[in-house]
Amino acid sequence: MKEYSSLKQLIQSLFPKQDDIITGVITKTSPVTVIAMGDDKLTVQPLFGKAIADSGLKTGDKVLLLSYRGGKKYYILDRM
Q: Which of 45, 61, 63, 67 is the most buried (most CB within 10 A)?
């Protein structure tokens, strides 16, 4: 049996790794703030490229987010 150094590691091992791409809705534009669809507790201020910024993001827009660094950082890939 594998040993875990924390309860968090044990619980994380019980669930499959989450998808790296999630959908979200823009709730604020300055600074850009996104809430994950299906997880109201996940609110992030993602990074995004010039092409996305120039597209005129608005509150209520649905976006695709790339999650990286274990879900600690997010990047807006595109609007939906």
A: 63
Segment 35-44, tens digit of pLDDT: 999 888 999 9
**Token pair of 38 as six digits:** 């299906």
Q: Report pTM.
A: 0.73
Question: How buried is 77 (Cβ within 10 angstroms: 0-12 exposed, 13-18 middle, 19+ buried)?
Answer: middle
We find that the CATH architecture of domain 17-79 is Beta Barrel (2.40)
> Is the pLDDT at 46 greater than 90, yes or no?
yes
